[in-house]
Amino acid sequence: MHLGIISGSVFGTADLVADEAATHCEAAGLQVTRIKQPTVDTLVGAAVDALLVVCSTTGMGEIPDSLMPFYLEMQERFPLLTGVPFGVIALGDAGYGDTFCQGGQQVRELLQELQASEAIAMLELDASETVTPETDALPWLDEFISHLKSA
Prior knowledge:
Blueprint: E1 2-8, H1 13-27, E2 31-34, H2 40-46, E3 50-56, H3 68-77, E4 85-92, H4 102-113, E5 117-118, E6 123-126, H5 133-136, H6 138-150
Parallel strand pairs: 1-2, 1-3, 3-4, 4-5, 4-6
């Protein structure tokens, strides 16, 4: 199973979580490609079997600037990802109310529109409750890995 990992970060936390996820998934026996500057072409060229997106939320519930060009290109080019299993780890702060983890939610909805298949429910990590999101994500990652290996 070849997993592509993409992240969108404002202050680097989502990138750190994605890097730790890559290490954890490799240790579990998955082939991992960490796509640091994603485009539709780099995603297609990587020929991944599954996708993990780690995305923080900025502003009024927006996707971070580092991921927005990829998100817009995916909307414009609409590359079908029919049946490709995916997972999303969304980072946010519940103190912002309705916009909590909306960046990750937008990515999740786009992947579903592209006909990808959500492997397990999106993980929402609350910055007001955790100081170590990279380790808080590990139980979810173990479930995600297990799902990918059994698919």
